[in-house]
Amino acid sequence: MVTKGNPGDNRNNRSSASVFIIVGLCGFFYILGLWQRSGFGKGDSIAVEITKQTDCSVLSDLNYETHHDDDAGTNDGSNTQVREFKPCDDRYIDYTPCHDQGRAMTFPRENMVYRERHCPPDEEKLYCLVPAPRGYATPFPWPKSRDYVPYANAPYKSLTVEKAVQNWIQYEGNVFRFPGGGTQFPKGADAYIDELASVIPLDNGMVRTALDTGCGVASFGAYLFKKNVVTMSIAPRDSHEAQVQFALERGVPAIIGVLGTIMLPFPSGVFDMAHCSRCLIPWGGNDGKYLKEVDRVLRSGGYWILSGPPINWKNNYQAWQRPEYELEEEQRQIEDVAKLLCWEKKYEKGEIAIWKKRLHNDDCSEKDTQPTMCETTNSDDVWYKKMEDCVTPSKPSGSWKPFQERLNAVPSRITSASVPGVSVEAFEEDNRLWKKHVNAYKRINKIISSGRYRNIMDMNAGLGSFAAVLDSPKLWVMNVVPTIAEKANLGCYI
């Protein structure tokens, strides 16, 4: 006799299978999540393989001039002793050698000397590898990284409290969120930048490079990327901990820096625009020395923006809770120095003022008061050089070109023979050479331009051709030129 099966048995079997499938999928996605949060992915495996093949020997005969021969600047390794560097203790995860807080506090506070670079003597240097914070996760790809940073990557909450009402940064779950607000742009960075764009040509590629002094968490520079403007944001290592670290984690160019007694580490005439939003720099003090330094790094025809005190002090002194006479004197000093520099005031509304640097040095030759001109023969020799109370003669800049045209055009400082040892032919050959090299890199590492890498450093930038060839909205390149390089090509690439 054939016995009929219970119809419920099939339903039970199907239910059990569904449960197993759901559990399996949950387990798979849990493991996938752990893998993603570990920061170990395709790009990282490539880095590991390259690291395994890399000889980390400390060489005594390094050659800092750009070369492409396989044997240049190396030895045969027969007398090389391999030295292994072990991880530092976890307490050093936030260690920045030349900006150590303990060492900084031993220097004078006058003119921000204590916030400048003070590197440790040999006996205090670390010879270990500074570890990442525990739980460090792969940063979000751009543009999501502009708005979100994993908390584990920069575990510092003080700014979320101190700047809570100003929309700098917010802590949400296991991430920091950057709403795009700021002390001077309560309506958001986009609205603030649009107001500047009504005066400054930010929409047609004429402005490409900007400098933001006292940048906070670098939201100004982060949102300027929409205009295809690359901003170098600088801020000191001070009580606002991790400002520059937040900027870099967001994928925004930034360095630790301050306007104090040392010249900014940039050549002359390389920025199209400079910006200060409540950066607390005494622009009118010290006989206008800081404004003269901004003038040095601005291109002829460049713009300087100041928002916040003391601009339009008559309408704002009560909100700022500062004496009228003090703010009036500050603005008078700034206006006097701007006139001395022959800057033209283009705009003043609300708490924003914009000046424009003249195109030519002789535009103000008939002024009653002439500034003292710097006598240096090399205004690009700035590393650890004292800031001088003088005006740097403008570099030849020619007519402004939009960015895409400027990217591969020969810079005027080369066509005018202002860079010894670098000819037009050498510049063009360097561009051709780096196109070939970058194509070779992309054949090896096929995800270079995929968005996996956002912050890239060229440790021997030469003429900047590597960055020019890599140009992409998905990444940016920090060009570094060794201070002992023979050719003074710093600035050719900006």
Summarize the topology.
Elements: H1 7-37, H2 42-53, H3 101-104, H4 144-147, E1 148-150, H5 158-162, E2 170-172, E3 175-177, H6 189-197, E4 209-213, H7 219-224, E5 230-235, H8 243-250, E6 254-256, E7 271-277, H9 289-297, E8 298-307, H10 313-320, H11 324-340, E9 344-349, E10 352-356, H12 403-408, H13 412-415, H14 424-444, E11 455-458, H15 465-470, E12 476-479
Strand order of the largest sheet: 6-5-4-7-8-10-9
Question: If you average the pLDDT, what whole number results?
Answer: 83
- Order of SSEs, N→C? HHHHEHEEHEHEHEEHEHHEEHHHEHE
Please compute the radius of gyration using only Cα atoms: 27 Å
Task: Tell me the number of strands.
Answer: 12
**Which percent range describes the beta-strand content?**
5-15%
Treating each run of at least 4 consecutive H or I residues as one helix, how many helices? Answer: 15
Structure classification: alpha/beta
Concise summary:
By secondary structure, this protein is an alpha/beta fold.
Protein traits:
single chain; 494 residues; alpha/beta; seven-stranded mixed β-sheet; 15 helices; globular
Structure characterization notes:
This protein has 15 helices and twelve strands. It has 494 residues and is of the alpha/beta class. The longest helix is centred in the first third of the chain and has 31 residues, at 7-37. The termini are far apart.
